[in-house]
Design a protein that fits this description.
By secondary structure, the chain is an alpha/beta fold. About 25% of the residues lie in helices and about 20% in strands. It has a seven-stranded parallel beta sheet with strand order 1-2-3-4-5-6-7, with no helix packed on it. The protein is globular.
């Protein structure tokens, strides 16, 4: 499977240690998508260009594995059903030098808590904030910081925010 370029997994939870080790250094993997911990080590594959982490995989802990990734250009973090993705992830994301597209979904962020750092991404061209809790003032500051970045924003519903707050309270 050395020529495998894309791996998309759903609802798989128990990789073998051999699979984990092989994917973390896979020589050809360019695209990885997962909704859980299955072989999340694949995000460190050296030629990976696109990552799509959903549900529990879109968490601060798993995003930390992306730190300083040399070839990533697109990251989508779709944290629906969890409160695991926070401002803390931004510190890792800004270390990805080739990042052009970033999509953050179903999460709560603040300008002061981390979004102000997105201006550190020299190649960022597209920022999608979907179903995100973000104040109008913070969104305005972010847009001022990133005048050349195409930013789309969809606010989180009040109902979903109540759920998110409940999940976040359980983590404490």
């Amino acid at each position: 499977m050395k020529s495998l370029k894309a791996l998309n997994t759903m609802h798989v939870t128990r990789p073998t240690p051999e699979a984990q080790a092989a994917l973390s250094v896979h020589p050809a993997l360019e695209v990885f998508s997962s909704d859980g911990a299955f072989c999340v080590e694949a995000v460190t594959a050296p030629h990976l260009q696109r990552v799509d982490l959903k549900h529990g995989a879109a968490s601060d802990n798993f995003v930390a594995l992306l730190k300083n990734h040399p070839s990533l250009e697109s990251v989508r973090l779709w944290a629906k059903g969890y409160a695991g993705l926070t401002d803390a992830s931004i510190a890792t994301l800004v270390t990805i030098p080739k990042l052009k597209k970033l999509s953050l979904e179903f999460s709560v962020f603040t300008y002061a808590g981390g979004l102000h750092r997105l201006k550190e991404l020299p190649n960022l061209a597209t920022l999608e904030l979907k179903d995100v809790a973000l104040s109008d003032d913070d969104l305005a500051k972010l847009k001022a910081d990133l005048p050349k970045v195409q930013i789309t924003f969809t606010p989180m519903t009040a109902e979903y925010r109540a759920q998110w707050d409940g999940w976040a309270a359980k983590k404490k």
